[in-house]
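2024-03-11 09:14:02 INFO worker-7 job=invfold-0412 stage=load source=structure_tokens
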């Protein structure tokens, strides 16, 4: 999910993904959206908060995250890249897709930084 917002391109969220909706066979591959005020008390609403957080990050750092170039770094066990805008702004993105905490050690950071399991960090 985070990669859609942090790599080049427009993030694409299919109806209901933001609350963990799943589908079945056509024609009922998606049911009605589970709005809480309609009594539909299901869905993973913490996912919605994460989608909103990623959208906010993308807006706030738009120069680098929307139009910036991408440079991948060699960081064993982590996916790390730098997004740079034409005006010199940059964002370092690190994603840990493992079940254990990893440590990010790169020249662009003054000290090693912990990256939690199944998490991302921006610098």
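2024-03-11 09:14:09 INFO worker-7 stage=emit residues=123
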């Amino acid at each position: 999910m985070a990669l859609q917002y942090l790599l080049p391109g427009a993030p694409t969220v299919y109806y209901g993904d933001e609350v963990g909706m799943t589908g079945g066979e056509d024609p009922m591959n998606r049911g009605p959206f589970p709005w809480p005020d309609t009594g539909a008390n299901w869905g993973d609403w913490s996912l919605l908060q994460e989608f909103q957080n990623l959208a906010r990050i993308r807006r706030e750092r738009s120069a680098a995250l929307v139009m910036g170039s991408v440079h991948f770094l060699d960081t064993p066990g982590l996916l790390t890249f730098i997004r740079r805008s034409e005006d010199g702004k940059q964002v370092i993105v690190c994603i840990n897709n493992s079940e254990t905490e990893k440590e990010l050690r790169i020249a662009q950071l003054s000290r090693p930084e912990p990256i939690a399991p199944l998490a991302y960090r921006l610098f």
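2024-03-11 09:14:09 INFO worker-7 stage=report msg="The longest helix spans residues 45-60."
2024-03-11 09:14:10 INFO worker-7 job finished
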